[in-house]
Amino acid sequence: MDPMDDDNAPVWDEDAALASVSGNRALALSLFKDLCATLPQELRILREQRAAGDLPGTAERAHYISGGAAYCGVHALRSRLKLLESHARAGNDTGTGAALSAVAAEVERLLAFAKSLS
């Protein structure tokens, strides 16, 4: 699936998140909320790295964040992060910029969803 085409993907796949933590819903929610709490800072770092021309650093940071996203059942964000990582590793600044915009949009969608859980 093309990460840019999954706008209809669920923001949070609760079943996948539960599978990661042996069905412990309280833990799944806690990890999800912890991830969401870090995303504004992570997005800032990604933007700073790209602006500084540090595409290898951008790729590494995207890879790091995508691991947590996968564990928490946040597949739409993870797919956008993987695309960002791919463009950054390839040295494609234009593609990295577009992918970073898609990551930012998904972070906004995710944070709005997380607020609705509170």
Strand content: under 5%
Shape: elongated
SSE pattern, N- to C-terminal: HHHHH
In the residues, how many domains can be counted? 1
The CATH topology corresponds to Four Helix Bundle (Hemerythrin (Met), subunit A)
Span between termini? 31 Å
Low-confidence stretches: 1-5
What is this structure, in a nutshell?
This protein has 118 residues and is mainly alpha-helical. It has five helices and no strands.
Descriptive terms for the model:
Four Helix Bundle (Hemerythrin (Met), subunit A), mainly alpha, 118 residues, disordered N terminus, 5 helices
Structure, described:
With 118 residues, the protein is mainly α. It has one domain (17-117): Up-down Bundle (Four Helix Bundle (Hemerythrin (Met), subunit A)), CATH 1.20.120.160. Helices cover 77% and strands 0% of the residues. It has helices at residues 14-20, 25-51, 55-71, 75-89, 93-117. Helix 2 (25-51) runs antiparallel to helix 5, helix 3 runs antiparallel to helix 4 (75-89) and helix 4 packs antiparallel against helix 5. It is elongated, with a radius of gyration of 14 Å. The termini are far apart. 34% of the residues are buried. The model is unreliable at 1-5 (pLDDT under 50).
